[in-house]
Amino acid sequence: MRKVIQSLKVNETIKEHFLLTSLQTKLGKNGTYFEMTLADASGEIKARKWDLVEKDYQLYDVIHKELPQVVLVKGLTRQFQQSIDLKVFYIVYPDVETSISISEFLPSAPINIDDSFRELEETIASLQNETLRRIVREVFQLYKPFLPQYPASIHGHQGYGGLLWHTTNTVRLCETVIGLYPKMLNRDLLISGAILHDLAKIKDYKLEKGIVTKVTDKSKFVGHIVTMAYDIRETARVLNIDVHAQEVELLEHMILSHHGKGEFGSPVEPSIPEAFALHLVDALDTKLGVVHNLWEKTPLGEWSDWSKVLEKRIKKVTVEG
Amino acid sequence: MRKVIQSLKVNETIKEHFLLTSLQTKLGKNGTYFEMTLADASGEIKARKWDLVEKDYQLYDVIHKELPQVVLVKGLTRQFQQSIDLKVFYIVYPDVETSISISEFLPSAPINIDDSFRELEETIASLQNETLRRIVREVFQLYKPFLPQYPASIHGHQGYGGLLWHTTNTVRLCETVIGLYPKMLNRDLLISGAILHDLAKIKDYKLEKGIVTKVTDKSKFVGHIVTMAYDIRETARVLNIDVHAQEVELLEHMILSHHGKGEFGSPVEPSIPEAFALHLVDALDTKLGVVHNLWEKTPLGEWSDWSKVLEKRIKKVTVEG
Amino acid sequence: MRKVIQSLKVNETIKEHFLLTSLQTKLGKNGTYFEMTLADASGEIKARKWDLVEKDYQLYDVIHKELPQVVLVKGLTRQFQQSIDLKVFYIVYPDVETSISISEFLPSAPINIDDSFRELEETIASLQNETLRRIVREVFQLYKPFLPQYPASIHGHQGYGGLLWHTTNTVRLCETVIGLYPKMLNRDLLISGAILHDLAKIKDYKLEKGIVTKVTDKSKFVGHIVTMAYDIRETARVLNIDVHAQEVELLEHMILSHHGKGEFGSPVEPSIPEAFALHLVDALDTKLGVVHNLWEKTPLGEWSDWSKVLEKRIKKVTVEG
Amino acid sequence: MRKVIQSLKVNETIKEHFLLTSLQTKLGKNGTYFEMTLADASGEIKARKWDLVEKDYQLYDVIHKELPQVVLVKGLTRQFQQSIDLKVFYIVYPDVETSISISEFLPSAPINIDDSFRELEETIASLQNETLRRIVREVFQLYKPFLPQYPASIHGHQGYGGLLWHTTNTVRLCETVIGLYPKMLNRDLLISGAILHDLAKIKDYKLEKGIVTKVTDKSKFVGHIVTMAYDIRETARVLNIDVHAQEVELLEHMILSHHGKGEFGSPVEPSIPEAFALHLVDALDTKLGVVHNLWEKTPLGEWSDWSKVLEKRIKKVTVEG
Amino acid sequence: MRKVIQSLKVNETIKEHFLLTSLQTKLGKNGTYFEMTLADASGEIKARKWDLVEKDYQLYDVIHKELPQVVLVKGLTRQFQQSIDLKVFYIVYPDVETSISISEFLPSAPINIDDSFRELEETIASLQNETLRRIVREVFQLYKPFLPQYPASIHGHQGYGGLLWHTTNTVRLCETVIGLYPKMLNRDLLISGAILHDLAKIKDYKLEKGIVTKVTDKSKFVGHIVTMAYDIRETARVLNIDVHAQEVELLEHMILSHHGKGEFGSPVEPSIPEAFALHLVDALDTKLGVVHNLWEKTPLGEWSDWSKVLEKRIKKVTVEG
Amino acid sequence: MRKVIQSLKVNETIKEHFLLTSLQTKLGKNGTYFEMTLADASGEIKARKWDLVEKDYQLYDVIHKELPQVVLVKGLTRQFQQSIDLKVFYIVYPDVETSISISEFLPSAPINIDDSFRELEETIASLQNETLRRIVREVFQLYKPFLPQYPASIHGHQGYGGLLWHTTNTVRLCETVIGLYPKMLNRDLLISGAILHDLAKIKDYKLEKGIVTKVTDKSKFVGHIVTMAYDIRETARVLNIDVHAQEVELLEHMILSHHGKGEFGSPVEPSIPEAFALHLVDALDTKLGVVHNLWEKTPLGEWSDWSKVLEKRIKKVTVEG
């Protein structure tokens, strides 16, 4: 992972690859200039190129509708008002042979993908109820190839592995909760719901070159909650499992109700203890994930940016002593 | 339809069949007595039987868990505080040969069932889009046999034919709306949604002897909105229609979004004009149906009972002149 | 109606009359430039004039406080970032003899004004209750001369005829509703309310050269709902009708309650079925009008702009097949 | 004012006049008995009459629909569960010659009616703006004869003089507020609004024998806010004052907006400082009036009954020291 | 723990000790009778005693204001309408020598008190930050003697040990969460908050004979949140710890903000990740505790009673297979 | 107080001291220019300096992070679009000897600081309850030195003396309210609460050179409500007053509950009449203060700017006649 931006200082001349994520023409002195956003896994920086020449316009024509793109930039960092920006000398495509994966420039969840997959698959294997185990295994395999690239939320942490991280966290918290209420909670049902609950978000987000750039029409017309309910039904049918079997209907209910209330997108509310538990655990990790994302980007001792989701700022402190 | 109760006066001795809808033992003078509710299509009356004898207790044992039941009652109407009640002399099962259908005692929507079916089926036949027409016809046939008995809502009008009435009203209002916005609204899509939108309520309500007595587990675990989405998918599959065809997904969207907002049970909100139109028309007729039910039970010149749904009373007036 | 803007392509040199709706001086290369918005019935375009000369400043002084104005513009269309803008060569007042009505440049509701008036006046003539018919006819005549210019809402469709269109739609939907609930709804009362309910919006909006530019003080101090109640009272008095007659009070109630709830501006809530019906029908057409306005401006196959009123975007699709 | 009930103890035989406010027949031992509520200015007591005789039934027939009535009751107080009730020996109409005004049995606001009228009329006389002074004087005279009997609210303090008390409090608080913001607030406008703001409640409540028993149809169809706006208009017309004069429209605005928000019944929100001030002062005294009513009925050292308006209980404490 | 009630059948003659929790006189045949509620750890039963004799009235006088009391009851179980009640033959105080602790009749949380104390005290000992460890140990010792008797909530589970159970659950969930977000969360701070957050509820509830019977004045005047903040301050002072030390202020913040939002009683909202985590974990276990309480009282295969806190019912199912 | 800005006209050449409150570099013709905001007690003006020279950049480096600063500016007022701006010729620090206090440039509350202090201290002296009088006097002395500089709210009126003004208004309104409800309200308790209720806001705001620039961490971690509760406790302890004395706990309750509801920051809601009265009076003056601030900045006859707090505009009118 490339992490140059975070440690840039004023008045450095640099020549580096970055991910160009926005590019606009602006009107200024002596005609138009470019205003750009460059990113790597450690953050973003604003950059400006003046004195545009023919080659710049050619580049613009080729790439401004195909962002994000990896580009090679040479420039000088300057203090500009509250922050550092980059005065760009030139900007070019990297050589063909140096083709660099976009994923190198993206932040990623603090997990090991392979370990997480192993943990989840062992958890699936540990399910006692055969019907649930077969359905969950099948649906999970369906989504597994796409899972690592997806973030847990389009508003929250955009990182590679975010959805996988959230899924693993949800499963672990559910295991703790089962330990607290062992008589009330059926482990097979709760863990099955925990694994599948958010996977269909993969059909809600449009991934372009490893970055979620927008939501799909499907997310507006059907939504990941009903999409997963469809998947469970169809998987059951494919596996010759009765779609009206009690476990199948209860698993569908776990998925349909996991947002807790209609206003958050669930067509029905949790009606069994396992559905409540899944909803509460999902909400807890989702909110902590938002806090984590905010916290990561905040320097020590400072208040974070305003979070629209949390409707507040948080402070990053270290407890002394 | 039997309509005796509405016109009862004080001090009449009557001997009639009624629908017994509740029966409780109460402690009073000289031991326990029965407190009952008797109903017919025109309303309800409270009744009390004193001086219980062996036969009464036998009757109680047999029927108090199997209500509602048609019974034959002889008694005397009395003024009691604000209203009329019935002092019961005896209460018996009707003779076997006089077996009377419960439906005779139920209020019903002011429509002709056959005419309504004909109207809906002609409307289905008029749909231009073959995919939609085939799916709608098939799903409609699935529910048609059960449709007449169901009310439009468990809180609102309990009457026989209520769901059919609401469906027909929705279709007619949609036709008017299509006339007002002909360029914006696709008739096939809007009318298809109008016909199917509430049919799966039939799986939400438990019908016992022609009366909806409670909601089913399915209504809590899945709900009629997602149930109809499942039905459309499965019908398409049965008819060899691609479940990812645009019309199928849009029709699913019409159904999923027709409650307008998540807090009213829709997992997604209306995202095309036809979905908005269906939601608005459905809400209008649903609310007017509640007003109608309240208005029907209110004497001319009086304020109605308090309606929890409307959060108010209405006044039944006649405009003079 | 002039509809040039919608079909402009890049690199066209045009010389056309437009409606200039905004004009600002901006700081840029070689001093200030003008940033303008030009409109016709088919849409809007941004335009910029550089190299300002004395005549430009004279024009600015004369017209920048008197917008909108019809102007003659010569310029060249350019691709600029996501959209087309116009590089202006010159901008002048049209010759006196070519004086062109602003209304040619405005979008308008898809109705024929004369037909709508005829429809409404025939509807008024069909009212059976003489008191209502006389009051409605008189109040309608009061507002009729101003009616065609007004939009249905300052937030929604700004078009010429919008208020008349909404009034006609409301009447037609009420006729359908009366057909569905013929016993419950008094046609005279409901239709009278439908015709008058929004007319006093004409006193809420300030019209300048055929365009609603802002709301009046009266709309904040009294509001169109109470204003229409005053109008009914005063009209009754002028016509020697007892202001305490039942129909007059009920018609006032229809008007006062038609926004349904206090939070939407009604000092009292609907208390008779006709008042409910008017409220529900009015809300339905108002919301569909907002959807229509959004839909009209959206290219086929695209998601619309964000609508603050609907709190969402809609997609403009065509159903194939 | 009669205040017997508050000081009754167990096992007293009493023979007193009370106000009978409810009378119901109940089923119990040896047939029906009467369950009654008796009231005087100090509170209420439940009473029961057993062994009903012919005269009791005659009394019942005559008065149970004409309550409240003054009756003479002889009985014995008993401890019954948490509270005292009265075992009634006989209950009769008082002799014709002893006819006693119902108002003797009602709680009343802690003011002197004549002093309050004098204070308000002197305040009116002190208004500098002739137009406002003439309108306020005229409207006040219209309502003055009915004012003493009315409570400030049907939910709150039911007492004689309550509306007059609230009006006087509102005026006094407005005088203080004018002293705090003398440049911003026009005294004539604010005081005029303060005097008139609630007077039309007199048309909202139905008074039967000095007690507000229910709200009128007018309160539901038009409401006291719009009714007072009508009164101001018509009074201006009678006094040959231009109804479009600035003061008249602003005074109407004060009245229309004094509930602050649409959801509390105002068709427009306060748009001038004086309208805000009136709204805030009115809300303050209204809420303190509710607290006062609750506090009055609560014994020292106890928590009050639950107040639906305040959504809580208050504690009646004495600060020692 | 006594658990007789749960397994009672119709027509059993029993003679058992129960906890009498309510006792009322009612009017019925041949004078008054007693209506009682009897409880043990497995549930409640309604009981009635007829034919009251002198000794019954003496018992009533002595105990009806001092409930709950352990009593010895002999009676016969009967089917009455939907449920079983007990026809009481006699009811007496138990012999002095058989004095039985009320706690035997109370439901209790499914934990071992000693184990939980050991777990919490070992957790306290494991805190690295000395300031926090000393404060938490001291405050915990203050409340420890009273902790076992208290329930977690006056609305939820009333059982012995409930508050201790909830405290332990909160700590365990926090440990899991710390494992998921190890860099972001300071364990000392989060665990300190977890242990102390609800202890001051002990001052909010009034305990009478081991049962929480109502909330204290202190709970209304100050509340357990601010009370614990006071306790931390005063403990710091007693221990000669600077009350303005960073850890002390952050710990106060953890406590003050743990209800998450002002509307739930927190004067400030969570502003550091640990405060968010505590709030989310506390809310999760509190809600699951309510579900657990409901679930426990519901027979297998049935829907539970309506829960006002959850605003719904839950179904108790067993997953087959 | 300096009040130049309010009366500036177009085309005046001025040389004056102003408070520079913002300073930014912008990209424009011939390189960057300065965009500044200059303020005095009568308002603000935008200013621009072109043709930046070395001295300008030096000034920028020195002061742009230390704003606000008093500067001497020479320039020419110009009409620019809707408003006046200032074309700056030069901008310099004032001579050392002319050092001018920032407070001269700030708006201030329309009160005399000394008179207000005298009024509050006489009020404190008039308290009868010795415990309350001693605590209030001591806490007031603690905050008194800082009081004059603080505004009543960071969102509302920023003026010098604003908090003192609001405190005095609250006391005066409470005196009026005590006059209206003399039996219900204990003057000592209500007045004590009125004086102390907002003083701890002084610890919520960060004051830099006489201007509140932001809120403190303490305001987020503890908040002024709990801070004042701490102050009362600690002051009582210092004065050897029992912290559990009834008056002390009630005074704490007054402070803790004065925001009325949890959602506005009170951990407990008002539970005694005095707490209600303080809450209502505080809310009234706070809202009128916002209206006053808006009104002051609005020219006569105009609508004000949009107020986010009030969610509306107000109109500044003069009542004629």
TrEMBL record, chains A, B, C, D, E, F:
The keyword Hydrolase applies. GO terms for biological process: rRNA 3'-end processing. It holds the Pfam family HD. It comes from the Bacteria. Keywords: Hydrolase. Residues 184-286 form the HD domain. This is HD domain-containing protein. It comes from Anaerobacillus isosaccharinicus. The lineage of its organism: Bacteria, Bacillati, Bacillota, Bacilli, Bacillales.
